Amino acid sequence: MILQFSIYQVFIATKNISIQNKTFTLTNQRAAFWQKEKALILSDLHIGKTAHFRKNGIALANHIMKSDLERLSALIEYFQPEKFIVVGDLLHAGDNSDVDEFCIWKNRYPDIQFYLIEGNHDRISKTLEEKLCFNHKSEFLEIEDITFIHDFDSIKSGFQITGHIHPGIVLNSAVKNIRLPCFALSSNQLLLPAFSEFTGLDTKNLPKKSTFFVFTDAEIYEI
Predict the structure, then answer these.
(1) Contacts of 170 (CB under 8 A, 6+ apart)
(2) Most C-beta atoms within 10 A of its C-beta, which of 18, 97, 111, 161?
């Protein structure tokens, strides 16, 4: 069943799945929700990417990040989470003006616990860590029998929720091939889409034997 919700001019469609006998809610806004833990789970925000491009002479408006944060605010209003779990690559290139804007946004939600699983882009100094005010920062996080880690670790046993890949699917048609972001669910992994819309899509390095949950601005569906 797909539920729909509109706020901040953001349209949220949802789909429930079962992982390790636990219910998770996937959304077309690039995040998942774990009701039991009241946790909003997302990956690859890449905060600071547009500012990094501007610093290097590529003129990009910062509305991209503002749009990402607007979607995140809509998800907070919808799910009322008690914690964020960011599965890596919160940042893109260290500290810059976009990080300042993110911190201002984050301060609107002081009661939400903030967990960061470090990704390959998360080069965070002690000063920057204090600025971001994490409640928890580590290379991985275990809750019950689920491990949150940025990139899938084949050595670890059990179920993993990961990011890093920026998964996407190509839908073929007689008129045009369409590339869409997706979640990928296999027997031992839920691969999250990149939360930021300012990212590419990897359509080749996806987990084998997966079910894909593809989404658009208006819907989410299983293939």
Answers:
(1) 177, 178, 179, 203
(2) 161
Which residue's entry shows tokens 């910062």? Answer: 62
Token pair in block for residue 69: 């944060």
Half-sphere exposure of 169 (CA within 13 A, CB side): 21
Contact 170, 194 (CB under 8 A): no
Paired sense of beta strands 159-162 and 146-149, if any: parallel
**Whether pTM exceeds 0.70:** yes
**pLDDT score of 221 more than 70:** yes
Nearest C-alpha neighbor of 81 from the set 101, 106, 109: 109
Q: How does residue 93 score in pLDDT terms, banded at 50, 70 and 90?
A: low
Which residue is it, tokens 């689920």? 146
